[in-house]
Design brief:
about 500 residues, alpha+beta, Methyltransferase, Cobalt-precorrin-4 Transmethylase, Domain 2, Heat Shock Protein 90, Arc Repressor Mutant, subunit A, six-stranded mixed sheet, four-stranded mixed sheet, about 20% strand
Length: about 500
Amino acid sequence: MKTAADIRSLLQKGEKNDLECKEAEKQIPRSIYETYSSFANTDGGTILLGVQEDKSAIDPAKRFLVIGVTDQEKLISDFWNTINGSKVNANILIDENVYPLEIDGRPIVVIEVPRADYMMRPVHTGENPFKGSFKRNHEGDYHCSEAEVRAMIRDQNESGNDSLLLDYYTMDDIDLETLHRYRNRFRVVNEDNVWNALPDKDFLEALGGYRYDRCKKSEGLTMAGLLMFGKGLPIRDVFDMINMDYREETDVSFDVRWNDRITYDGTWENNLFNFIQKVMPKLTADLPKPFRMEGILREDDTPLHKACREAMINMIIHADFQGEGTLKVIKHRDRFEFTNPGTLKIPKEMIYKGGNSKARNPRMQTMLRMIGYGDTAGSGFPTILAAWAEKGWPEPDLAEDTILNQVTLTLRLGTNDGVESTSSSTPKTPPKGDDALRNVVLTLIRSNDTITKKEIAEKTGVTMYAVKKIISELREDGKAEFVGHSRNGKWIIHE
């Protein structure tokens, strides 16, 4: 439970993603259940009843006014009666989440909404999740798109998503060269495994990449099998909204966005196993004490190399390949960034603690672990934390973007012994490409404080996806915010 001092601190910081204020002087406002849904489906938050908000005010001291409520017990009782009824599909609260409090002698009601378990999302109002599901962003509560609702429903599958049998996709869609390279590595790590003697289709079935459906009397590749070992064209036919991209941005300038890149260019079969094999040597080439990965001999690994491999594997096994986005790895001079489509299934604190893995793609996880890629379930992230802590480098940062529906892991490289870059003779140049776009967006906002995201995209010639990303970064950095409603609000620049 929060104290009066905690509430004052929240109000001083201003309304954010995790705070919503309602006047609610005499009765529960209907919009509270939309906020309940949005907090439950995003990252949790606090609702304050009895606090008035002036969204046009910038100064938090003037923006929030504690007016109090007339009857705390009645409001709490009314809230519980409704939340346990048919207004919402699930009550995820316990008694300690709803309680009375006094601020400066005025009575208010505090409702702390936790993030809902992935098995219970989406939490929605009414009976239809596609009409009553909400999420939270910087502008408040918003209706979830159909894609967002379907993603949450997919995540309810306890056995993961990658066992999906793909109708009409067969062994003809497997790139045998890729599969045989995998089998060679599998044989080195698992010399006595009986699977080594199996034909390719039976071997793939043992891994979970091929499946028989007895009820439908059908068989074929699973999602895991096609994505991991498939030919590029069949993969793009099924997963046309997903891309793979590696960029090295260690020596970039305004007119040079990257100095090395791996993406689909027609020269390689763009399956996940090939992507890993192409990216890992480039990603770790400049780390201290580089090693050779011949035969996947685990004893040759340094903790840093192992941590980078864990980060790469985590990105893949937690990605939502049935959504939209990019499986992206960026190597900067001072950090590595790993981004995957899909939001977190479990809270960040549980991920940092380890021991509880809820991979979206457990069959891919098995495939990679069988060749020495990835530790036991739930230990991957602690392995990354331990390697970075041993070097005394900044703690890895796991950031969830519920607007873009993606997760990014940032591994910052320390300055005590640095990175032995092969291009160390090149003067250090900060990555100006994204900075240039941010500056253009800020200039457009300064010249028109009511400009829309669509107008920004049209004027800059970039996608809405890129505009949303830049605006999200500007808000997080405290450089810009949008106040008021979407139709009549305006942008505020904080110089």
